[in-house]
């Protein structure tokens, strides 16, 4: 008999580490030989990608290059209504470093939701409405491009609808659960991450990760964001 286990810690998928956790800067070098880019001015900014990683529950510091899109070109136009720089995210995705891309995405949400300006390193579900359509669209196009359409919030929304908005079914469908003996539980991010940072091996919608540490309202609001109401987000900026 299989038992579904939901615990506050075991069930958390890393969205911004707990508020009590300190953040420390990390620098990750993106191999320039793996990146094709149309702008010489942006090339140098891709050499070193800087973001923050939680001191506790840090996922693997490196992931093997796993992009399924060969020879993909990084877009030169990555618009943001709040002036956020998406070149590091594009560089991480283009080099196949999905661990870093996942973390940069979470860091981006903190900034573009306005949480960072309020002195917080996590996002309240009530702040999702503050995230500009332009920024979520830029994030989504990058995830879609460098995963061959396999990852992204729009993919997760499709799986959410297929799951009839049942969080347990949703988690199982996108590979956020695992079998531990007789117990089916959520994968752990704290300590050694159990998530799959590989385009070929991970199920559709597996990335990016969002935490349920403070409940499921955050991810639900992200998947209900008005940017997904139509396909305008797919349009490349002119």
TL;DR?
The chain has 238 residues and is α/β, with parallel strands linked by helices.
How does this model look, in words?
The protein is an alpha/beta fold. It has seven helices and seven strands. It starts with a strand and ends in a 15-residue tail after the last helix.
Net shape: globular
User: Helices and strands: which structural class?
Assistant: alpha/beta
Provide the gyration radius in Å: 17 Å
Query: Tally of extended strands?
Result: 7
The helix tally amounts to: 7
Proportion of strand residues: 5-15%
What layout of secondary structure does this protein have?
Blueprint: E1 3-5, E2 23-29, E3 36-37, H1 40-43, E4 48-54, E5 73-74, H2 87-94, H3 98-112, H4 133-147, H5 153-162, H6 167-173, E6 177-180, E7 183-186, H7 217-223
Parallel strand pairs: 1-7, 3-5
Antiparallel strand pairs: 2-4, 6-7
Helix pairs in contact: 2-3, 2-4
Characteristic key phrases:
7 strands, two-stranded antiparallel sheet, alpha/beta, three-stranded mixed beta sheet, single chain, disordered N terminus, 238 residues
């Amino acid at each position: 008999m299989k038992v579904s286990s939901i615990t506050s810690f075991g069930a958390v998928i890393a969205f911004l580490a707990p508020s009590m956790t300190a953040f420390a800067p990390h620098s990750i070098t993106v191999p320039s030989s793996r990146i094709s880019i149309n702008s010489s001015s942006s090339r140098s900014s891709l050499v070193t990608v800087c973001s923050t990683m939680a001191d506790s529950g840090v996922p693997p510091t490196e992931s093997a290059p796993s992009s399924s899109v060969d020879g993909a070109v990084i877009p030169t136009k990555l618009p943001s209504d709040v002036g956020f720089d998406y070149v590091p995210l594009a560089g991480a995705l283009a080099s196949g470093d999905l661990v870093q891309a996942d973390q940069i995405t979470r860091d981006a949400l903190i900034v573009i939701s306005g949480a960072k300006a309020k002195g917080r390193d996590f996002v309240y579900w009530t702040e999702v409405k503050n995230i500009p359509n332009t920024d979520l669209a830029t994030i989504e196009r990058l995830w879609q491009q460098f995963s061959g359409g396999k990852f992204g919030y729009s993919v997760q929304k499709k799986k959410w609808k297929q799951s009839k908005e049942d969080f347990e079914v949703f988690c199982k469908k996108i590979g956020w659960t695992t079998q531990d003996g007789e117990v089916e539980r959520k994968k752990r991010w704290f300590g050694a991450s159990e998530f799959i940072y590989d385009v070929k091996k991970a199920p559709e919608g597996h990335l990016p990760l969002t935490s349920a540490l403070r409940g499921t309202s955050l991810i639900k609001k992200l998947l209900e964001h008005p940017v997904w109401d139509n396909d305008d987000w797919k349009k490349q900026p002119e």
